[in-house]
Design brief:
globular; 12 helices; 18% strand; 7-stranded mixed sheet; 17 strands; 398 residues; 4-stranded mixed sheet; alpha/beta
Length: 398
């Protein structure tokens, strides 16, 4: 392990070299069935040929220019997003954290220009994850991400998702600016919120003039079988939405989308980005969007997710002493475990499958949206072997 990199990652002993579809290879040629996909980022798998072609073609033309000029790719990708969502305007950055920061700024600025600068409070929820930048970690409120970084930022309120009365009271406060929530929590343990929950909060926000922000960085871009997770339900559209990850199919892109009304305070000089929306990113983003947004891609993701969940529930019955629950939505799947999830991640790796961690002692499966039926069955076969191994090791340790 190199000591010339900042030691903030607990890296697995896997030296990656290349990827093909659902498979990841190390420098020695060993391969793993990849159910991490860069944490739900490589939505179309590794090295999708249409994304490779788009990147190569753009790389020969133009890499970067300043946002003081019009960039046609931005306008084209923004139009695709607007045509597919509630939004009227889009801002492009480079990451999910940047998208969240822009969304939070937009919400507070909205109230400022409306003559209510006191409305700064942002309501977030336990188990959420919105990124690692300063406002993002304050919006999440995870103590382990805040420790040692100075005082908490003012205006961030944390509640639990199940506190219906507390949520209603907080939204009604005259200092509340926005609610930020993930329709499906990722890092928090693949917890999918119901349509009833989203509708209740959406209606409360409308009633009290509070903006609703959805963090669809992980749950968006086809991950749940709809283009965006909230689109499973009627009448729950947000005012602002942050997206990233699979938006670029592995190329760094983030964006926040907003209604014209919600974004009315974001005028010239209030926000910006050097690299956001650069021609390379936009070329790949357009190619990724066009593939993911196809109904056949989304239908395939829904069908394979249904197969996978059915087989995982059978696996849960077989290993009921090790698997507590199968949860999530679509291709954002969580297994709540009895054994330590981090130890199981390493054990799964020994059996040729890569899974991600998650809150509440879960492991997450975040495979390619193009995972085949045969590969889904192989996911379960390899997990089955890993759980059998885990039982043996637990028995020896007892």
């Amino acid at each position: 392990m190199s000591d010339n990199l900042l030691g903030v990652y607990n890296r697995a002993p896997l030296v990656v070299d290349r990827g093909e579809g659902s498979w990841l290879y190390d420098v020695d040629g060993n391969r793993w069935l990849d159910c991490v996909m860069g944490i739900a980022t490589d939505g179309l798998g590794h090295a999708h040929p249409k994304l490779v072609a788009a990147l190569e073609a753009q790389a020969k033309k133009l890499w970067h220019v300043s946002n003081i000029f019009r960039i046609p790719g931005q306008e084209a990708l923004a139009q695709r997003l607007i045509d597919s969502t509630f939004a009227d305007v889009v801002f492009f950055g480079n990451s999910g954290s940047e998208a969240i920061e822009g969304a939070l700024k937009t919400a507070r600025r909205y109230h400022f220009v409306n003559g209510a600068p006191e409305r700064i409070d942002v309501i977030g929820f336990a188990g959420s994850f919105h990124g690692r930048t300063y406002a993002a970690v304050n919006a999440s409120g995870n103590a382990s991400y805040l420790e040692g970084f100075g005082p908490r930022l003012p205006g961030y309120v944390q509640l639990t998702l199940d506190d219906e009365a507390g949520i209603a009271e907080a939204i009604a406060r005259p200092t509340t600016a926005a609610v930020i929530v993930e329709p499906v929590q990722g890092e928090g343990g693949a917890r999918a919120l119901t349509g009833e929950w989203l509708k209740r909060v959406c209606d409360l926000c409308t009633q009290h003039g509070v903006l609703l922000i959805y963090d669809e960085v992980q749950s968006g871009m086809g991950r749940t079988g709809k283009l965006f997770a909230h689109q499973w339900f009627e009448g729950v559209e947000p005012d602002i939405m942050a997206i990233a990850k699979a938006l670029g199919g592995g190329f760094p892109i983030g964006a926040f989308l907003a209604t014209k009304e919600a974004a009315k305070g974001m005028v010239v000089g209030t926000h910006g980005s050097t690299f956001g929306g650069n021609p390379l990113a936009m070329a790949v983003g357009i190619a990724a969007f066009d593939e993911i947004a196809k109904e056949e891609t989304l239908a395939h993701a829904r069908a394979i997710a249904a197969e996978l969940v059915e087989q995982l529930n059978a696996l849960k019955d077989k290993h009921s002493d090790l698997i507590v629950e199968v949860r999530g939505k679509g291709m954002l799947i969580g297994l709540k475990l009895v054994p330590n999830n981090r130890e199981f991640m390493a054990l799964a790796r020994d059996h040729g499958i890569l899974v991600a961690g998650g809150g509440e002692n879960c492991v997450r499966l975040l495979p390619s949206l193009l995972l085949s039926s045969a590969e889904a069955a192989e996911v379960v076969t390899r997990l089955d072997a890993a759980f059998a191994d885990a039982r043996t090791r637990l028995a020896k340790a007892a």
